[in-house]
Amino acid sequence: VQLVESGGGSVQAGGSLRLSCAAPGNIFRFNKLGWYRQAPGKQRELVATISSTGTTYYADSVKGRFTCSRDNAENTGYLQMNSLKPGDTAVYYCNIATIIDNYWGAGTQVTVSS
């Protein structure tokens, strides 16, 4: 089982992108969705999470600029990224961790130019 991300791309600083993460319903609806990113030469870091009931968490570096949402009927999560900075350049991954397994997408590249 793999999650499927989409929506990455290249934008200028100050621009916006919206990432999507589609998952099978049996693992999506009742579990927390996480968004991570990994920049070249750096470790993967947690960006944001959204619980099955909509409670969100954001890393300090993206607070106020990124917004998590989810559509449980469509088994899809979203990460709206506004006011993007060159430091946001990374491969972005979505993740769902259940008691049975830990699911990842293949990642989508986000590049922000100054």
Order of helices and strands: EEEHEEEEEEEE
How many DSSP-defined strands? 11
Decide which structural class fits the backbone. Answer: mainly beta
Mean pLDDT over the full residue set = 96
Terminal CA distance:
37 Å
Which runs of at least 5 residues are low in confidence (pLDDT < 50)?
Answer: none
Count of discrete alpha- or pi-helical segments spanning 4 or more residues: 1
Question: What spatial form do the alpha-carbon principal axes imply?
Answer: globular
Can you give the helix content as a percent range? under 10%
User: Percent of residues in beta strands?
Assistant: over 45%
Major beta sheet summary: 7 strands, mixed
The gyration radius over C-alpha positions equals: 13 Å
Task: Give descriptors for this structure.
single chain, 114 residues, mainly beta, seven-stranded mixed β-sheet, four-stranded antiparallel β-sheet, 1 helix, 11 strands, 4% helix, 50% strand
